[in-house]
Amino acid sequence: AGQNPIKHFLQFSDFTRDEFEYVIERTKLIKRKFKNYEVYHPLVDRTLVMVFEKSSTRTRLSFEAGMHQLGGAAIYLNTRDSQLGRGEPVEDAGQVMSRMCDIIMVRTFGQDIIERFASHSRVPVINGLTNEHHPCQVLADIFTFHEHRGSIAGKTVAWIGDANNMLYSWLQAAEVFGFHLNVSTPAGYDIDPALVKTDRYTVFANPSDACEGAHLVTTDVWTSMGYEKENAERLKAFDGFIVDGAKMARATPDALFMHCLPAHRGEEVAAEVIDGPQSVVWDEAENRLHVQKALIEYLLLGRIENK
Ligand code: CP
Ligand code: NVA
Fold first, then answer.
1. Which of 3, 97, 188, 289 is 20 to 30 A away from residue 63, measured at CA?
2. Mind listing the domains of the chain with CATH numbers?
3. What is the pLDDT at residue 5?
C-alpha cells in the first residue's frame, strides 16, 4: 500500500482530459465494432470481479456483458454471499481478489471503502458508484452528449435535485472538460464544499432559474441508495424540484434531458420530459456498456492504436 503504481478509476478526476478524449475515441470504435457484429476479443482469459454492496441493474449488466464481449469473464459478488458481509476487511479482500482477477469493479457506501480496497489491490479498481461519486455514469453521459451535440466544453448543464454522487461526478467533469453547471438543490440538501474542487458552477435557489439557457438538464432520484430512511422527509423537502415541461422550456430549444436511472416519474421528473423528445436516457444507459469496455481496455492494455 502507498506505493501502488496501478491506475484506478475511483473518481472522475483520476483521469486527465487527454485520457478521456482517448477513451471517448475508443468508445466510438468499440461501439461501431459491436454494432457490426465484429468479434473483438483483446481480453481472452482475463477476469473482472464485480463487488456489489448495493443493488444494481445497469452497472452489473453493462460490466458483465462488456467483459464477455471483450473475450473475458466477469464474476459477480455481493455482500450477502461473500465474506465481506461477515466482516472480512476490505484491505484483505483487495489483496485476495487482485491475486486472482485482472480488474475489479466495486459498488459500495463511503468513498473511503473503495480507496482502502484499491490501495491493497495489485490490479485496477473501477468505482461502480459510492455515496460520493458515480464516475462511470458521468463518463457515459458525456459520451452521450458528444454523440448528440458534439463536445461539452463551454456548454451549460443544469443539475436539479439532490447534491448526490452524480452531482459530485458532474462537478469534477466540469473542471476536467471545461463546462459550467447551474445547480439547484433544496435548502438543507446543498453541495458539501469539502467535496468540491472547482468553481465552475453557480447555485440557484429557484430550480427553474437554473434551467435558463442550459444545453442539458439533468436530475436523479431524491433518495439515493443508503438514504432510504429519509425518504418521506425528502419527498417534502424536494417539492417543486420536479423537472417538468415548464422547466425544460427555460433551457435552450435543443436542450437534452438526462437521468442515470432508475427514475421516479412524478417525483424528480415528469413523464412528459423523460418520455419526451428531448430525453436521451436510453442512450445513456446503453452507452454505459460501450464506455466501460473502452475504460477496461485502457486500464488493462493502455493506449493501443489502429485496432
Ligand atoms: N445508473 C445506474 O448506475 O444504474 P444501476 O443502479 O441499475 O446500476
Ligand atoms: N444517486 C443514485 C444513483 C443510482 C444509480 C444512488 O446513489 O442511489
1. 3
2. 12-133+285-301 (3.40.50.1370), 137-281 (3.40.50.1370)
3. 79
